[in-house]
Amino acid sequence: MSISLPSIRGLKMNQRKQGWAQKTMRAFVGATWVAALLILGTTQRAEAQPPGAPVKQTPEVSVITIKPEAVTLTTELPGRTSAYQIAEVRPQVNGVIQKRLFVEGSDVKAGDVLYLIDPATYQAAYDNAKASQSKAEANLLPVQLKAERNKQLVAEGAISQQESDDASASLKQANADIEYAKAGVQTAKINLEYTKVTAPISGRIGRSAVTVGALAKAYQDAAFATIQQMDPIYVDASQSSAEMLRLNRNRAAGKLKVDTANQATVKLLLEDGTPYPQDGKLNFSDVTVDQGTGSVVLRMSFPNPTQTLLPGMYVRAILTEGAVDDAILVPQSGITRNTKGNPTAMVVPAGSDKVEQRILKTERTVGDKWLVSDGLKAGDQVVMEGLQNIHSGDTVKVTPYGVKVAGTPAGATTAK
Q1: Among 52, 205, 287, 328, which residue carries the largest CB count within 10 Å?
Q2: Among 93-102, 342-351, 406-415, which stretch is predicted with the lowest mean pLDDT?
Q3: In a domain, 353, yes or no
Q4: CB atoms < 10 A from the CB of 27, how many?
Q5: Range of the domain at 352
Q6: What pLDDT shows up at residue 286?
Q7: What's the mean pLDDT in 255-274?
Q8: CB 312 within 8 A of CB 82
């Protein structure tokens, strides 16, 4: 079989065309990959650093520098006011009420006449008792003279000893009759005085439970009225036994310095939050813990000349616990809590520019601050603002708290 020359030439031309096409395709694919890589690189650079974006700067935070200070610790306890003295007015004799001699809600003094019970029958009984006394005294003189004469006659032998003894006995009987009559007069006088129902104590009297014409019964259950002495006035507050144990433990450990004179002084906040102008004093602490509430009762007394405090009012007593010479106080906004509930703070140590997170131990609040007993020391800088821009280990730039931080209004709280 023979192949013609033109056929060979056509075959060679087809092979050259196929080779050229393959080379063109490979060049096109390579160029496409290069273009794709260039576009991707350009896009990534554009995303990493947009045109006009500023160079990343060191975060700026606002801090307070820890400085131990002396502070007096106080505690607020809820309490109720109660009258210094309370007296219920009741009659001590029977009779009909003739007059009421006081104004309801007014101040009365001990001994003031409040009610007048009809005294007619008691006046008559008193007069009768006095007459009986006069009669007994009148019978005394002849018996006394007879007894004296019989003593002389016995000595002379004119009468028997028995007659003299009878005369002496009659004299003693006459004296006893006089004493009995005097007691009757005294009883009648007391009952007559009881027709004037008087105030047993000084204080403010409440409403009257009876009116004129009502029948009074001696020592009846229902009181005519109630008098309350409100100057001074008591405040009874409750303190948990656990808090009392903590306080005693801190004092024993020397964490609190106790000023005995100052400790006895108590301040008071009224129900609306305003301070009471007069200071009081702590009278005593109960010796029994209430099993239902787990607390003990503290009784205090306060002057109440204007009677601002009324019995039954809700108040808060402020007692001085003691003093701490080197207390570390941190604003509450500078302390957060981790997932375990432990108090933490972001701290820049003294002489460092790196921030670190510390777990703290807090004792209690003092106003708007936490009293920190562990985790901070003098010179540490606690971050107050700019917390959202930092993590533990970051290098930061610090400024005093209250100075505006970049991107944060001065004084704004950014704690999470």
Answers
A1: 328
A2: 406-415
A3: yes
A4: 10
A5: 60-70+326-400
A6: 80
A7: 75
A8: yes
